[in-house]
Fold this protein.
Amino acid sequence: MGCFNKEGGTASSSSTMSTSTSKSKTTVAEERALELKRNVVLTTHTEELSSLLASLNTDPATGLTSSAVNSARAKHGANVLTPPPVTPEWIKFLRELTGFFSLLLWGGAALCFVGYALEKAEDNLYLGIVLVFVVLATGIFSYLQNSKSESLMASFKNMLPPKVNVLRDGKTDEIDASQLVPGDIVEVNGGDLIPSDFRVLSCSDNFVVDNSSLTGESEPQQTPINKEIHHFIVIISAIAISLGILFFVMGVVIETPLVSNLVFMIGIIVANVPEGLLATVTVCLTLTAKRMAEKKVLVKNLEGVETLGSTSCICSDKTGTLTQNIMTVAQIALGTDSTFKTLDCPSSFTNGRKTYDSESESFKRLLRCAILCNVATFTESSKWATEDDGTTRKKDDDGNDTPIPFQGMLEQGDGSSVQVVNWKPVGNASECAMIKLAQSECTDPTTLENDIIHTRSSNPTIFVIPFNSKNKYQVHVHDCKQGGLTVEMKGAPERILDRCESILIDGKVVAMTDELRATVAEKQLEMSANGLRCLGFAERELDPKVYGKDYKFVSDDDAHFTGNFPLGEDAGDKTKDATGRKINPKSTVGLVFLGIMALIDPPRPAVPPAVRKCKTAGVKVIMVTGDHPITAQAIAYKVGILWTKTRNDMEADNLKHGRSPGDRLWENPDDALAIVVPGNTISVDTSQESWDFILNHPQIVFARTSPQQKLVIVENCQRQGHIVAVTGDGVNDSPAIKKADIGIAMGIMGSEVTKNAADMILLDDNFASIVNGVEEGRLIFDNLKKSIAYTIQSNIPEITPFLGFIIFAIPLPLTTILILAIDLGTDMIPAISMAYETAEADIMLRPPRNAKLDRLVTAKMINFSYLQIGLMQALGGYLTYMIVLNNYGYPPNILPFVGSLEYWGVQPLYCKFTGGNYVDHNGNIDATLDPTFSPPTREFPLWQEGLNGYVGPCIYPLRDYSGDGFGLPSDFDRTVSTTYGGSTDGEDQPTIESIQQAEQANYFHYVPWKSKLSPFWENRFLWWDVTESNSLTGNLGNTDSSRYFKGHLAGIYSLCANNDGLFGEDGGEAKVRGAKDVFDVDFMPGVSPNLPVSSGGYPAWPPLRVVWSYGNCTSYPPNDPDVEVLGKNSREGNPGSGAIFCNGAEATDGSSDCASVNVDLATGLPNPQQVFYCVDSCGAFGTAECVPPFTNADGRVITGDNVKQCLNIASEKSAGEALAHAQGAYWGAIVIGQIAGLIICKTRWLSVTAQGLTNSFMNFGMYFELVLVAWLAYCDPINVGLGTRNIKLVHWFCAIPFAILIVVYDESRKGLMRATSPETKDYETGQIKRKKGWLELNTYY
């Protein structure tokens, strides 16, 4: 017992604060810092006790008065520690924004903004904005989820506030520790937490305090789910970063711009990382913790739930866990009628029958021992009726408190009534059962005979040896009204019986004969065999001449290891201990055996089915109890832990029937599947072979075990490879609970120390709740597997577009920004929705997870998600992509090697035509030209396939000129050709010669008629005002010059138009400045300059992707690809001049040399690729406003505000818009495929039809995917930022067959897998086992 006091530190602090108001804040802070560095000085333990009690206004016999409590609480406040500093919420939020992958995205966004600043490319700006949005959105989501998780765990902490027994107004009651005030008298029992500073008033000899919580805690162990997530992150990060670097290197090889290449690399990395995984883990664990709380399981460590799901062995207590913990004394055995016999007490076991004589002296002595050798009591508050607020006591008509009777009748559902105890007992369940029996015998309110408070106050306690698992007994010494100083003992019957030399028969002490001893043992075994928990009782009245009022009782001393009073110790058993101390002769005096109380604690109704579920799931359930082996075995059979004969039973039956080896009915004990192991047969020194022999039994019960032995049991189970869950309640169970993979404490009967050590607490002490936890833990792992399997399915359809782009140079089917839209947009909620998926029906028919083989991510999962489902999604995406491009005039055969980012949608495409027709924008056909051999004209610029037309292959005219090193003239105006000065601002440009070389090989300007029929077509593509920016390429208009020279210019360069073919003035040969040799050319991916050149001037293989021209300008147009361009515009002769730029008006030198560029020499008509002029606004060439000449007297074009330069950009514009539609459709196809993937991932073994579509959050996720992709695709200007377009309705259906294929394929796979993997039940263990077929071995992930 201790006195709670509160030091004057608070008052001192208040004084300091009040006297420091004139000081600076810095000085105050410094003083507080110095104060915190000083040692805390406590003096209350040295004060005179009487003065301390007086200062606290308390009495050790009655405690504080109610008024004193209220005054102290008003002065000192609640008994709670100042909470530690918490991490500010903004810091937590920043952490969510600065993870490794978040930093990658931040870096990518920064690169995009830098790229936009350098090149003014709007696609970089949009991508940067999207990346920032993605990081913020995912950071906010993760922050909110973690906040919910933290709030949940904080609420759990308040569910089990520490309780203390406090003495107030002379009565003991149980209150929250936070309600203590200075001066309270508190009773502390073994395993209780010390709720505040105390002055110890009295204690037992072996009273100790564990200060480990003050000296530090051990490092937390990594849970299985932590290991799995770390393993997965390592694998997926290695894959993602390796692929990112590989693609980056490939990008460097093909000379992708650095910024684009870095962003591209980041996109690849992000595409391979399931960003929703950690959020899914958090949601899974939080949801499970909520569900477990609803099932009366308090989860202290969220990840511990998954550990429970991996459990392969549960070491469970019996009392209160497998049983109801509603202890009732069912029978007693005592000396009456000249013998020792068993009598019934009112209980469910005896159907309420009572056969003992309450007036019997033997019964009275037994009952007195049960009251005195007992620390359980009834809470004071439960004895009085209260108002609705639960605290204010009800008053009767006379103003007195209204008492609650000890017992009452409770009406049951069937209309019958049973007697129940209204008062709430506090203490050990066994002791509570004893005081309920004792209090029920208090029938005389005047004498208060058998009233526990009256009995204890009338027979005050002098000395106590608390119960411990080693001795298995409890001793009290009382000053009894009858008998003087008396030793009262209770404990395990066999231990108590061995200490007794006499027995009480009919109220008289008689010698303990062997016959009587055998009779007592027999009665105990009979009651134990019925599943009753037996406790023996004994006493000894002490000789007042030896044991006077001032006698100092001890449990041991420096010379002796036993007590200095009668305890029935066996002098011949052990005369010395390890330190040389001897047995005290006084302790060898025997006791008087009073009798046995047998307590019934019926099994919980939910336990047998829970044990059955464990057996089918391959989870071994081991009972570890302190009860007698017979009692433990009886309960084990009732709950299903044992279901076959034990080894001992076989030996007993063989002996009983005289069977020997070789007899027909002889049972070999070595074949026994069940074993009951008494605690005295095992220890830390037991060999591994012996442990393996015991633990290899499928049915095991450990009885009469100590907490130390429980620790050894746990260690050996773990040594065998088990994931072990352990239940415990006592303070000594803490080591085993900490050692276990998952420690489980009892919320009702568990000590505070045990609760602190545990990972979870059973609020109802129910074993079935553990099994629920196993199922929930398995569900977590199952759902995480499903979530990952779903998420990484999209990696293949996300990566293969880049492979196709890099290897075959097709137009990129999917952009980085759309990958992010999938991974961090459409996929996020469906991935998280897996956390809400219910368990498959077979989840408890599977064996426990083998942590070494069944990882969170396995090769079979990668195979399933990548090579099976992912490949089908990719095929669906590619089909959709090709259908869209084909519908808009770009069939699959023309796509390879024309998809470079610097060409497709940027430069006009030139293709070979077989048949077909040239048409104008109204569909009128030009019947005079054969597209197979003739280029289109301005009036008829589009190609229509007609009945038998065929397009392909296609090329781009070679960029064979670069004005490097000279920059732009200061007077540069992109609409005035004379201001170009031969410069291209460092970019390569095609020339009229390379265009004519392509036409000479029958490659002609391609604008598909199908694009004209598309939703994106605008006729103005054919007569684009060059002062208006081209949104796809960012050139033309007022865009930055660096962007202008990357695209189709408002005019054409020529190498030869201003070249007379003469040698340079210095007499040496020199090519036109900026003209490129064949080996200088930046070729398309897949095309080598070392390949053979065909007669048409283009590579013979790969077929027809680029051409170049370096003809002799004297032979114009050039036709010899091996001759350099020579002439007067040489570096030496005229370094200020290069190629000539023509835009349908003046030449750069003011001459008329551009005439040959402005007119197509093959047809004699105006060059359809050259700029033309219109008045007021651009329109169709040949209309009244756009009919030449708008010329002056010299034949040059008149320029002015009313004259517009117009350019046909339909080829690149159509290609770019068609690709944007195809990319959006590919993206939509992936989403459709992912919906199918989400559905099939609902189950790993069973059919989806068996699981059903009842996950409302997942259903919302599928709806969300479709709505989000539609919104992003159709909402302007968001779709412009993402680079997508309004997808045609018909194009949504392209991927549906593949989605159906995915579902049909996986349902067939799982159906065949179930059919080829038959299930059987193992009789020895009760486990359901599968004989794995080929499909399960190779595809079950």
Summary: The chain has a mean pLDDT of 81. The first strand starts at residue 2 and ends at 4.
